[in-house]
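Quick start: read one record
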Amino acid sequence: MYKSAPTPCTRRSRIAGFSMVELAVSMTVLLILTAIAIPSLMRSFRTYQLNDAAARLSDMLKFTRFEAVRQNKQINFLMQASGTGWLVGTDSNGNGSIDPKEKQQLIAGFATLLPSGAPPSSASILAKLGATSSLDASKSGAAGSVTFDARGAVSSLLAYVFYLGSATNPEFGYRAVILLPSGATQIWTAPNGGTWQRIG
């Protein structure tokens, strides 16, 4: 029986690859998908930064409260300007400053402490807290201190609010850390120009 000789392979079939048209189409599709995904990824990243800054501030307040109870004495939570951000920490030794060995956090970069004029009104927070007096926002975005007593309560009957966000990019929204007179903390969120909702 006669067998035909195998057909020689062409050079194109031996070398796998893409034509210029296939490569151009693939790159176009990739660029379109990237252009669609970048705004969503950026929003997610900015949300993460805001949540992280609020969590770190809340954790420092909780740690200061714990220190006051542990040492059975008044302990101050301090806020000091540091470049374009804020250094917050626990004044465990009571010398009026945050020493290198004391627990501290730098709140800087995209999400930082803001004064009370930038974020939306805190009226919706008060309505949900059921408070009759206003929140004290004088400590937000300003150097100062908050004192916890030996029971872990704040030495004032006022609830304090600390606003976090970006002064130059308000479209990503804001966070608020509420320090209640009992010493407990809450985290709230609000879009630019929107109302506050509790998230933690």
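The longest strand covers residues 75-82.
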